[in-house]
């Protein structure tokens, strides 16, 4: 028998009765044992012979120092552990449910976007890529989209950011191609003396940015901001001029101008709080700290801005172009004009009624002002003028019209114009029918006879 330590002898001598050692889930022992002093058949067993872990030793030390029941302490520990396990299970379930919910939401969003694009394709309406590529016509051109974002949502910075990133990508791609030509043709070094050497870190970075989709159309790209810096104006020349020679622009694109362009894009739009905080931190680390100016550093921010425009703004832009062809000011002006025309038409018919005219057909003269009055009221309510559809025009600013070039928009406008004209005509006919049913009343002659 091994020699017992003083602490073990003290623990064994506290009671002549059996000290139960219940099933201990915390340790490696899974059996129930007893240590007895008064039974000759049971020899005292040293506690050190049991294999306990650190938690079990803490329990016995606490019981020896406080005199508490070991079973009660172990039960409390087991309850705490079970509660912790339940909380962990619940947290895992919540996390799984949250992830499943996010996946379902993303899937539903992607499906809705695909359905919307499919519906637009069927209705001959352009998608966002076509508008950003400046391949769509009025009233769905890039200029119209920019004007809509600026006037309705004050969110033109999203489009500006996307165009600036695309312009930086184009400049970087052109610079890489020029460096490749320079490396393959040493005789061109005299023409490209302003460029950085092909062994620069910027050139060694792989170009994996999305292909540029910005058109060289000067009218559409004059809507964006321009920096006064010489190198910046060179890089952003794609957005401001479509007539400059591509070769002359290539000669002016340098590594320094690309670095300045990347910093300008980051600093400008990071201060406008367009990008999420994580994206801004990533761009700050890549551009300011690591010195990377490859367009890849803007890939996440570019995708984020594109997603915002495609989900939030572009569907409403399409809806606005389909449902309206008039500015809000003209719609407000149409309201009092409609009231005056409607009142004038009804007053004219009432004049014939109270004049005592036996011919009721003369009352039909009131149909035209009544019909015009209802049409003007409809224009004020819907901001849609059917007469403009006949001329294939749409108003984008006050007294400034452009001819509709998108077949899908023209088709939708014609359909809506026919529906509104039919409604206005039916309402006017109903008013005329009611007024025609009133018998003539010669109020003037009765007053004269009396």
TrEMBL record:
Q: Which GO terms describe its cellular component?
A: plasma membrane
> Domain of life here?
Eukaryota
Q: Which organism is it from?
A: Paraglomus occultum
Q: Which Gene3D superfamilies match?
A: Regulator of G-protein Signalling 4, domain 2 (1.10.167.10)
Region Disordered, annotated ranges: 178-214
Give the stretches traversing the membrane.
328-352, 417-438
Asked if the keyword Transmembrane belongs to this entry, the reply reads yes
Cite the record's Low complexity compositional bias ranges: 186-208
- InterPro entries named in the record: Cell_Polariz_PKAAnc, RGS_sf, RGS_subdomain_2
Keywords, A to Z, come to: Membrane, Transmembrane, Transmembrane helix
Q: Does the keyword Membrane apply?
A: yes
Look up the record and give one Gene Ontology term from the biological process aspect. intracellular protein localization
The protein's name in its UniProt record: 11071_t:CDS:1
């Amino acid at each position: 028998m091994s020699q017992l330590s003083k602490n073990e002898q003290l623990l064994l001598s506290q009671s002549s009765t059996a000290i139960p050692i219940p099933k201990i889930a915390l340790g490696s022992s899974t059996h129930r044992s007893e240590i007895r002093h008064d039974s000759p058949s049971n020899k005292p067993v040293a506690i050190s012979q049991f294999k306990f872990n650190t938690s079990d030793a803490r329990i016995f030390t606490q019981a020896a120092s406080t005199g508490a029941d070991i079973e009660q302490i172990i039960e409390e520990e087991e309850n705490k552990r079970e509660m912790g396990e339940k909380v962990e299970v619940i947290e895992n379930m919540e996390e799984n449910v949250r992830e499943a919910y996010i996946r379902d939401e993303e899937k539903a969003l992607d499906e809705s976007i695909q359905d919307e694009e499919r519906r637009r394709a069927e209705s001959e309406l352009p998608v966002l890529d076509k508008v950003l590529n400046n391949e769509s016509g009025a009233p769905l051109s890039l200029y119209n989209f920019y004007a809509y974002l600026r006037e309705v949502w004050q969110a033109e910075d999203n489009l500006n950011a996307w165009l600036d990133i695309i312009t930086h990508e184009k400049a970087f791609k052109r610079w890489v191609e020029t460096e490749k030509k320079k490396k393959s043709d040493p005789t061109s070094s005299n023409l490209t003396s302003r460029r950085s050497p092909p062994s620069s870190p910027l050139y060694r970075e792989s170009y994996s940015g999305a292909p540029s989709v910005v058109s060289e159309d000067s009218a559409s790209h004059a809507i964006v901001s321009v920096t006064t810096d010489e190198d910046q104006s060179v890089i952003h020349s794609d957005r401001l001029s479509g007539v400059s020679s591509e070769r002359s622009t290539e000669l002016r694109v340098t590594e320094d101008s690309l670095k300045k362009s990347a910093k300008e894009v980051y600093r400008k739009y990071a201060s406008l709080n367009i990008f999420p905080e994580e994206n801004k931190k990533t761009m700050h680390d890549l551009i300011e700290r690591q010195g990377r100016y490859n367009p890849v550093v803007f890939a996440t921010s570019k995708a984020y801005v594109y997603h915002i425009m495609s989900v939030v703004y572009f569907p409403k832009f399409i809806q606005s172009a389909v449902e309206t062809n008039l500015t809000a000011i003209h719609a407000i002006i149409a309201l009092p004009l409609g009231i005056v025309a409607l009142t004038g038409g009804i007053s004219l018919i009432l004049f014939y009624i109270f004049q005592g005219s036996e011919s009721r057909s003369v009352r039909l003269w009131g149909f035209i002002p009544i019909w015009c009055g209802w049409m003007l009221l409809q224009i004020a309510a819907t901001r849609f003028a059917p007469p403009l559809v006949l001329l294939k025009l749409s108003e984008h600013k006050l007294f400034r019209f452009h001819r509709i070039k998108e077949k899908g928009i023209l088709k939708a406008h014609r359909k809506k114009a026919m529906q509104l004209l039919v409604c206005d005509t039916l309402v006017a006919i109903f008013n005329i029918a009611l007024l025609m049913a009133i018998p003539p009343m010669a109020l003037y002659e009765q007053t004269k006879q009396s």
